[in-house]
Write a structure and sequence with these properties.
Length: 159
Amino acid sequence: MQQRSALVSYARSITGSGTNAEDLVQEAWLRFDEASNNRLLEDATGYLFRIVRNLALDSKRSQAREYRLTRAVNYDEAVHSLAADTPDPESIALYSAEYARMQQALAELPERTRIACEMHRFGDAKLREIAAFLNISVPLAHKLVAEGVEHCKERLGWP
């Protein structure tokens, strides 16, 4: 309950919708409660933020897919839109290892840096929004995002 408003703000920064953010936090709590099975977890807050992040990203992708489908002029365009959302097996094989390395790199970051990086890169949050959310200065938000991105680039072997 102490982190509820922070979790809602985090979800809102990713989805852009306050109503959807409230629903996602509720769903995250239900999943967290089921996963923890009434045990005390060491990093319960971090775990809750991860659940919210995953649910928010899934929701954002789903909304984008739904938007493309509802904007389709005809059946063929709708089918093509659905096919474009489904990666081919070669792409899945090619990027699954890289995706796992990216997830690992994000997990290695300090919580505040990880949240700043995720909000900026996945949630399209502006630095001032990140600063307000984390209760830090805008230059520090910029530094955290830059450090997070640099860490991930190093782990993935990107230039």
